[in-house]
Amino acid sequence: MHPSLDQLLTLRERVTADNEDVAAHVRECAACHATVENARALAARLRELPVHTTPPDRWLAIRTALLARSERRWTAPARRPGWILPAASAAVVLVAVLLTVGSRGPQAPRLAPEATDVSPVGRPLLIAESQRLEAVLASLPGDAQLTRAGTALTVAGLEDRIRWVDYRLSLANEAGIDRSQADLLWRERVDLLNSLVAVRYADARTRAF
Amino acid sequence: MRRFGRLVHPLKAMTRLIDIEIDRDVLVRAQWGEPEAQAHLYLAFAGATYALIRRMMPRRAVADDLFQDTFVEVLQSLSRFRGEAPLGAWIRRVAISKCLMHLRSPWHRSLLWLDQFAGEGGDALEPAIAPAEAQANLSLQQDLEAALAKLPARTRAVVWLHDVEGLTHEEIASQFGLSVSFSKSQLMRGHLRLRELLQEHAESSPCIPVSTSF
Fold first, then answer.
1. Measured between CB atoms, does B80 come within 8 Å of chain A?
2. Do B191 and A138 touch (CB under 8 A)?
3. A50–chain B Cβ distance below 8 A for any pair
4. Which residue, among A14, A35, A52, would best test binding to B if mutated, counting the most B CBs under 10 Å from its CB?
5. Per-residue pLDDT tens for A101-149?
6. Is A176 left (phi over 0), alpha (psi -120 to 50) or beta?
7. What is the pLDDT of residues B164-193, one digit of tens each?
8. Given an 8 Å threshold on Cβ–Cβ distance, is A166 in contact with B32?
9. Gap between the Cα atoms of A21 and A44, Å rounded
10. Is the pTM of this model over 0.90?
11. ipTM of predicted assembly, 2 dp
């Protein structure tokens, strides 16, 4: 009895212990051998089909849509509930307390110097510091493991502000933002990342207790 | 000020999304929203992404919209990409997801209904290359293009994802939110139907006269 087409298509990809009997049949049966070879040839022909040309000027449309979406996001009226500010304030107080109490738990990540200490700071240093802080964030437990709703809100708020800075940086060329303004945005990004690292680190430490 | 309004993708032959590599520095800068890095990323992935979407969605206007949606979403959520899999695999997932969402939409069903009156496939049979670029095997390619376009959308998607993009049945099932058996049966149906359509076309083709010098 001939194997099913499904079995032959699977055999076309690989021979395993499960389909060794099918492979043995195909070696002996000209019809099944032809089916497997035809299926292989068909796949090869599909891969050789020419590529449709990417629609022209689509990048401009994509860029415009991207900017429009970001703009809507930042100009839309806030829909957050009324308890967000008290909760965020409580979270900030909690973080401050946690940062000053105790010394157990994971090693504190090195935070960037205060903005007042680094003036004037070149953009390469700010970018390097951003990268370092991103790496620190990546090494901390993920957002999904945050222990408190207030902390989660604080983190969400900081991440939103970082995205807003990123959006403004992405517009730097189009908007004609000069170098000093761009440097200020990079400094703001570093400050926000510092805050985010502090909050995430404090949360990680509460779980280490 | 540099503009990217007329970017043209350099790919000429079929390249799978998953095989495209991008410099890590470019990726990081694109994640931070640098327009030049984003444009570089677009240049690297646009051709293969469009090729995939176009094969799943032969109707060009639909494919163009889905292509744009895909890249807007990719660039917008790039900061969430953690590099655990190749970027091409991530972009492919977004593109496939967009296509499948469209296939499930009432808009797609209404287009299918309209196609009954407008002739099979609508603009589905538009060749991928211009006549001027035609090659010796153009006829064979057009037969296959035509046969592929005649497959039901989900069957065509499974055949393309499996045989060209190299997705496993498990991966296809996961993207469709259906079982592995679904993927296997669609692949089988697709191969049977393609074989029938190609055979029909071969039988209906006119005879080519033998060279007079014979």
1. no
2. no
3. yes
4. A52
5. 544 444 555 544 444 344 445 778 888 888 888 888 888 877 666 567 7
6. left
7. 988 999 999 999 999 999 999 999 999 999
8. yes
9. 25
10. no
11. 0.74
Measured between alpha carbons, how far is A47 from B162 in angstroms, rounded to an integer? Answer: 11
Q: Hey, are the CB atoms on B72 and A50 less than 8 Å from each other?
A: no
Q: How far apart are CA B46 and CA B81, in angstroms?
A: 18
Q: What letter represents residue A33's amino acid?
A: H
Please list every residue in chain B whose beta carbon sits closer than 8 Å to the beta carbon of residue A53.
9, 50, 128
CB pair distance less than 8 Å for B163 and A42: yes
Tokens representing A14 are 């690989």
Which two structure tokens, joined as six digits, stand for B70?
A: 């895909």
Contacts of A108 (CB under 8 A, 6+ apart): A201
Question: Largest Cα–Cα distance in chain A?
Answer: 82
CA distance B27 to B18: 15
What span, in angstroms and rounded, lies between the C-alpha atoms of A56 and A173?
22
Please answer whether residues A123 and A183 qualify as being in contact, where contact means their C-beta atoms are separated by less than 8 angstroms.
Answer: yes
In angstroms, the first-to-last Cα distance of chain A is 67
CA distance linking residue A87 with residue A150, whole number of Å: 5
**Which amino acid, one-letter code, is at A27?**
R
Structure token pair of residue B175: 């993207």
Pick from A54, A6, A58, A8: nearest CA to A31: A8
Per-residue pLDDT tens for A12-27?
777 777 778 888 888 8
